[in-house]
Amino acid sequence: MNHANPNRSGELARNVAVALRFKKSQGTAEMPQVEKEVLAPNYDRVRGGNLHLANNARDQGWPHPALYLRAALPDRVDVMEQVIADGDRVGLLFRVTGTHTGNFFGIPATGKRIDVYEVALLRIVNGQMVEGWYMMDEADLLRQLGAKMPPRPDGKRIAPPLPQTDDAATFIKKLEAQPALTALARNKLTAARTRLSTQTKEGLAASHHNLRYGFEHTRGYSKAHGHGELNLNAAFAERRYGLDVLMAEGNQVWVRFNVNGTHTGPFCGISPTGARMGVNAVALLNFDDQGAITSSWTFADELGVLLQLGRPDLLIK
User: Fold this and answer.
1) Could you tell me if 79 and 97 are in contact, meaning their C-beta atoms sit under 8 angstroms apart?
2) How many CB atoms lie within 10 A of CB 26?
3) Are 168 and 200 in contact (CB under 8 A)?
4) Residues near 270 by beta carbon (within 8 Å), at least 6 away in sequence
5) Which domains does the chain have, with CATH numbers?
6) 109: which residues sit within 8 A by CB, 6+ positions away?
7) pLDDT tens track for 48-57
């Protein structure tokens, strides 16, 4: 989807302009003034992109990578790939690129180039951002740097708490109570129903294609290290979804959800631990004119899962 969507007008177009202005100003001389103008006084950064690395580094006395990571990645350039706008929300999918020449939450400079995905879901009211939610592919970041999560002096590993959102069935009931009068509303409901079961194929076109799996890196690791095809249903008993955000524009729906389960089966060679798993994920679904899903691109917090299983360095050679 082109971020300059010609069909976007009025409030949606203004919200997208605010989001992109904020993003493009980062690391420039205009950034302080832009922040004053576009960030609401009550702006809430609900989730940071480097949530796990930042949590691991907190109170450890390590150098901070500075605002927008510019001390760690001074030549950082974000490549915008997709933008969606719906109501007071704007979604951005972009790639963070740059050279790691400064301390990154306790990881000394490696001199390596990175190119990793990040998603931002923003709420914009009256021309100002009131909420920001970000998730970077931290598992791939560490993999590209060839760096393990820095050990804390206290020996702790900070695993994320289990997400607290409506289960998919409850969320869907709320949607079904509203009249689906438009194609966008219909597509939202179809997208939500894909989270009812880990086995469902409801709403998928016969030609449906997975452009990216949520557990992309652990899937690749499992195959490469002789553990076979990754089977999340076998690894995490009673795996289920929670659902909290749906955005629709044009032929696309973005879904923010979480995946939960108990580690009762082998996962990438990790023997069952009995640990609870629950992490955030975002899916980008493309629809045809008949309302069938033609492709899916999914991004899950894989580093969060590995932390919950006590193996954050699994993917590092």
Assistant:
1) yes
2) 16
3) no
4) 263, 309, 311, 314
5) 10-145 (3.10.450.50), 168-308 (3.10.450.50)
6) 72, 100, 101, 102, 103
7) 999 999 999 9
Residue 127 — φ and ψ, nearest 5°? 80, 10
- Burial class of residue 170 (count of CB atoms within 10 Å of its CB; 0-12, 13-18, 19+): exposed
> In this predicted model, what pLDDT tens digit does every residue of 181-231 receive, in sequence order?
899 999 999 999 999 877 677 899 999 999 999 999 999 999 999 999 999
Distance between CA 137 and CA 117 in Å, rounded? 6
Looking at the chain, list the stretches that DSSP marks H as alpha helix, in order from N- to C-terminal side.
Answer: 10-25, 31-38, 51-57, 138-145, 168-176, 183-193, 216-224, 232-235, 302-308
CB 84 within 8 A of CB 71: no
Which residue(s) pair with 276 in the sheet? 262
Q: pTM for the whole thing?
A: 0.95
For residue 150, give the nearest of 101, 103, 106 by alpha carbon: 106
